[in-house]
Write the structure tokens for this entry.
Amino acid sequence: MRDTRLLYMRHLRVTLRARVAVVFGVLQPLLYLLLFGPLLTRLSGVRGFGDHDAWQVFVPGVLVQLVLLSAGYVGFGLIADLRAGVVDRLRVTPVSRVALLLGLVLRDTTVLAVQAVLLLAAGVALGLRAPVAGLAVGAALVLLLAVGVASLSYLLALVTRREDGFAPLLGAVVLPLMLLSGMLLPMSMAPGWLDVVSHFTPFRYVVDAVRAAFVGDYASVAVAEGAAVTAVLVVVSVALGTRRFLRENA
């Protein structure tokens, strides 16, 4: 725990020196809110939206998209550290090898928490109305998801070790996840076959869970499924990422 805290604070200090990058990290999801969200405001009553406000459907999807676009690409930083010898220098210290991963992941989750608050504030300004408890539940799921996605990103970076291998592989994974999870539009609006395929995407369950939380339906099956899928994803991804770090630093 001590090593994790020390590494977390070190990485956080480095990040705070580039605060502009934190703000620009939320720019693309924010543009979706500003330029795409208003197109959905007349869709109340349409299948998939039901009687809910369009912002209650759209903002949760954009939050999960933020996780993919922010936490999903953190591996680029690790590749740069590998090339610069930063990881090698840490290897000769007595620091816990598990802390090497957790310090990075917790830093990334903290940055994403700030970005999520900015995104939610923009959503409220545009017309999002959701119970405070629902916002808290949704944010908790999103932050837990960020832990899992960041861990997988670092795992992929350690496997590929080069930007020209990491970028295309990540791009091939992120785009289908975005389209099949129903981030932009509910998958209940999709043809039957596409809806069935989307159920094999773990992010669909997280998006549905956050949407249910935003309308105050905390005891729904969607929230339970989303929480379970997120927990499994976090445990598996952190375990795989930790195992890879241990092998790298053996």
User: Anything to note?
Assistant: The CA atoms of residues 152 and 159 lie 10 Å apart. The mean pLDDT is 85.
